[in-house]
Amino acid sequence: MRATKSRRSVPLNTDLPNTEYFLGLDLGGTSIKAVAVTAKGEKLRQRSVPFVDRDMEWARKIRTLVRAWRRELGEPAGIGLSAPGLAAKDARSIAVMPGRLLGLERFEWADYLASPRPIPILNDAHAALLGEVWRGAARGLRDVMLFTLGTGVGGAAMVDGHLLRGAIGRAGHLGHITVDWNGPRDDFNTAGSLEHFMGNKFIRERSKGRFASTHELVAAAVEGDAAAKEIWDRSVRALGCSIGSLINVLDSDAVIIGGGIARAGEALFTPLERYVRHYEWQAGGHQAKILRAELGDHAGAYGSAANALGFNAAKPSRPAKQRAQEL
Fold first, then answer.
1. Contacts of 259 by beta carbon, 8 Å cutoff, 6+ apart
2. pLDDT tens-digit map of 60-113
3. I need a surface site. Which of 9, 104, 146, 231 has the fewest CB within 10 A?
């Protein structure tokens, strides 16, 4: 079964201001993705704002954006935000984010944005999966994983409709599982990690300096370069082995693949399908679906909005006012 192509699109709502809306913010490494959506997921506004990671420029640009949309649309019924790192237990900030976005750790967003309600904070990959379940490729599913293939390998998992977070927020870091126990350590102290096999940040090392990006590697492999084909095949096999193994552990009904490397299309999905089936426990002939992410770079922003409105795949959504009271 080939990867299912994107078929849905989130509609643009052109209603005038005063429509109740939720604001979703996704803070990345170099840009902020934002959406303003209704409780049904209809898009009112969408923006991507670049920033330079110095002097907390990201915080000022987020505040400027929120103020602008407040003037245009009124006060949002809820604001949600996602960012790299481990979210705090109280979901009010990012607790751990070493090495970049200095100032993000323990930053109190509700105070900074003068929000009358708490602003729930999610890890960026967790938010991306929540967005895909709410309005994207995984809509209606309760047992699903997400892999984002880019500079690194991010991920998230949902079981029985519950987004897995874990004891300290590490759950779902699917790129940091060991594929080769004799391999080098990655940034998270994992030996021979999936991220090392598939992440773009390690492509020069994997190709012994020949390729500067995964896109260059894939292009060479597609053109018939034997060495490039071997490197790419080893990467895809590592991904397929990891996905198949995790399906066996989590019993996922579907696996969503997103990120820049997913743009390789059939050069990725055709061999990936083959390798996943090789490692997957297909009990009773059941095969987990491999689906392409649909929300693109704004998946985390949609997930943050869904988190703010109280979306829960395990049960019907609660009204925003009720969720705010619970927080």
1. 147, 148, 149, 150, 154, 293
2. 999 999 999 999 999 999 999 999 999 999 999 999 998 889 999 999 999 999
3. 9
> In the structure, what pLDDT confidence band is assigned to residue 316 with cuts at 50, 70 and 90?
low
The C-alpha atoms of residue 261 and residue 151 are separated, in whole angstroms, by 9
Of 274, 304, 250, residue with least CA distance to 2: 274
Domain coverage including residue 144? 140-293
Residues 56 and 166 in one domain: no
Give the span between the Cα atoms of 252 and 202, in whole angstroms.
28
- Beta-carbon count within 10 A of 294 CB: 23
Q: What is the pTM of this model?
A: 0.88
Rounded (10°) angle between helices 124-135 and 299-309: 80
Confirm if 112 and 94 have CB atoms less than 8 A apart: no
**Residue whose token pair is 């003037």:** 71
The pLDDT value recorded for residue 145 is 98
Q: Report CA-CA distances (Å) from 198 to 51, 57, 125.
A: 27, 31, 17
Do 72 and 207 belong to one domain?
no
Helix, strand and coil percent figures for the chain, each rounded to 5: 40, 20, 40
